[in-house]
Amino acid sequence: MSVSDQEESVNGIVFSKNREEVLLTKRRDVPVWVLPGGGIENGETPDQAVLREVEEETGYAVTLTRKIAEYTPLNRLARFTHFYECQITSGSPILTDETQGVAFFPLKALPPLPPPYPDWIADACINSPATLQKKIHSVTYLNLLKHFFLHPILVIRFLLARLGLHIND
Fold this sequence. Notes:
Elements: E1 8-14, E2 21-27, E3 33-34, E4 37-39, H1 46-58, E5 60-73, E6 80-91, E7 99-106, H2 117-126, E8 132-136, H3 141-150, H4 152-162
Parallel strand pairs: 1-6, 5-8
Antiparallel strand pairs: 1-4, 2-3, 2-7, 5-6
Helix pairs in contact: 3-4
């Protein structure tokens, strides 16, 4: 699957000033904590998209600190993703039609996160000077099946959201 054959997305990570906490949003459609992010709109660069998505989902205006990684999916459950570290310049947390929570969490006490977010947070903490090029190994059909047996309602809501049917819109 080539990048040109699929949609691309962006995610941003915002650390606290002491880098001991990370900003997460709780989605409305699938009520889980995640890193802010989303799709790239027509005519928008990945850099512009992550700035827009972080502000839309959190209320914080941010600047880019660095590009952490580019992630390539192994299947259609995920998208090619540009991952950035961002820094807050202004704003305050807001709830939107997409988010039901915005909060900083200690890196040592994160809430349960769906894949691939734990891997991506770990990659951000490495603080590599080069942009990482990685495959998204944690988002697979087998892992989806495992999660279905553990959290059936969340998986059904995730699948409906992937089909464009958002429950809490």
